[in-house]
Each structure stands twice: as structure tokens, then as C-alpha cells.
Amino acid sequence: MASNPTFPPSRPLVHGHRGCRGLRPENTLPAFLHALQLGVDVLELDVVLSADGQVVVSHEPWFSAAFCLTPAGERIAPGQEQQHNLYQLSYDVIRRYDCGQLQHPGFPQQQAQPAYKPLLREVLASVEAAAQQLGRPPVAYSVEVKSAPEFDNVFQPEPTVFLPLVLVELQAAQVMARSTLLSFDLRILQLSQLLSPSLPTCLLTETAEPWPRTIQRLGFVPAVLGPDFTLASPAAIAELRALHPTVSVVPWTVNEAEDLQRVLGWGVEGITTDYPDRLLRLLAG
User: This protein's superkingdom (predicted)?
Assistant: First the structure.
């Protein structure tokens, strides 16, 4: 995470995962605005591309059968999700799908409400304006570029086309200084290091490969490492810090109170959670 003097250094930063997925429909304006009101330090979000080159906030490059409805208001069959490929749809069509009215089966506390997949520029403009209205410090952004080599030219363009479109949106919104670029795709992070070396990058990992080896494959030391918290440990964090003391550790996605308390004990720089309210209560207590 890029440093920001408005954030207290004595506690980990609270990263609202997809806004606050446990409380509001993921990656939607209601989720980001509610997380902002709760008091998160960082908004984590995912971006994909539409057929007409618009940067859309969405975790998958298709519509989920679990919580999305077609423009006709119909459910999507699980086996047909990838037929609703965002990279093959113009944004005016994407906007007509609903991804908030259905109760998410994995998050019973989530408040269902009509919601669409917004453009990145719309999210940034809305959040920046809301922060000013609330009189709170500006929030930071963790922007995950959803990319994988096997998806090239099917669900996304190649990184040389994809990443510049994302960077343009961050620059236009004047939030580069408060943004970190995340990806599991090493190609995205390597290209970002070439195109925008001052933009902090976060290497996401969800395998048992030792972190120093993953960083070695990346070819440079990122600002942040984002591991699956179930694969993290104090020993792994100590080893990383001995080799790369400048790397911040921000585990994901930590939701249960017992797990949050345990990860807080690791002394990490940030925690990504679907329930930022829970983490904020622990930190306040």
C-alpha cells in the first residue's frame, strides 16, 4: 500500500474487500459508499474490460449465476455464466444486468438491493465526492487487474492493451498517489513497473510456493505482498521481512473474528476483509 500520512502507523490499514462484500453487493457503488462511511482506509476492487474498451468494476469477466440477473430479469444458469462474457458486451448492455437484488448465498448479512457493475471512473468520482461530503480523509484504492494468460483475447485483451486503459482512469481521477495495482498475473505487474514505476504494485498469491521464490519469478520486489491468509504464518512473514524488509504484507480475505484477531497478532501492514465493520470494532476495542 502506498504510504499516506493521514493513516495512523500504529495499526494495520483496513481494506474493504470489493467494498464490503459481507454487507452490500460486491463491487457496486452501494458497497463502496457504505465501506467509506464505515471508515475503511482502503477500498479494494477488481477491474475487467468491456467490448468497447471501458474499464468495468467486476471480479469475474462474466456475470455470476449466484447473484446476477440478465437485462430481462432472468436467472443465469451456472453452466452458462461464461456465455455472459463482459469482454464481448458493450457497457450499455452490461449496465442493464442487475447484480444486487439476489441475496448472495455466501453472505446472509448482505443487504440485497438493485445494483449494476459500475465503471471504474464512476466509482472513483463517487467515492472522492462522498469522502469530501463526509469530511473524512481521502481513501486509498487497491485496484486488482483481473488477468490470466489463458484468458487472453477471450475474456480480456493482452496486458499491453489492458493495463494502459486502467492507468489512464487512475490518472484522470488524480488518485495515482493513493493507489496500488494488484494482480495474480505477473505480466501485469511487470508491465506496470515499466509503464508507471512510481505506482506501488501488490503481488497476489494463493499457492504454497514460498513467497521469496514467487518474488524472484516476478523479477523485482513489489511494494506489497497479498497472500491468502490461510497460507500465511508468522514464520513466513518473518522470512519475507528478513529478505525484503520494504515489502508490506496485506493478507486476504479475513472475515471471522477469531481469524481477524489472529492475523492482527502477526503485525501485518493491512488486512483485507469482507466485513470491515468487524475489523474496525476490533481495532477500536
Answer: Bacteria
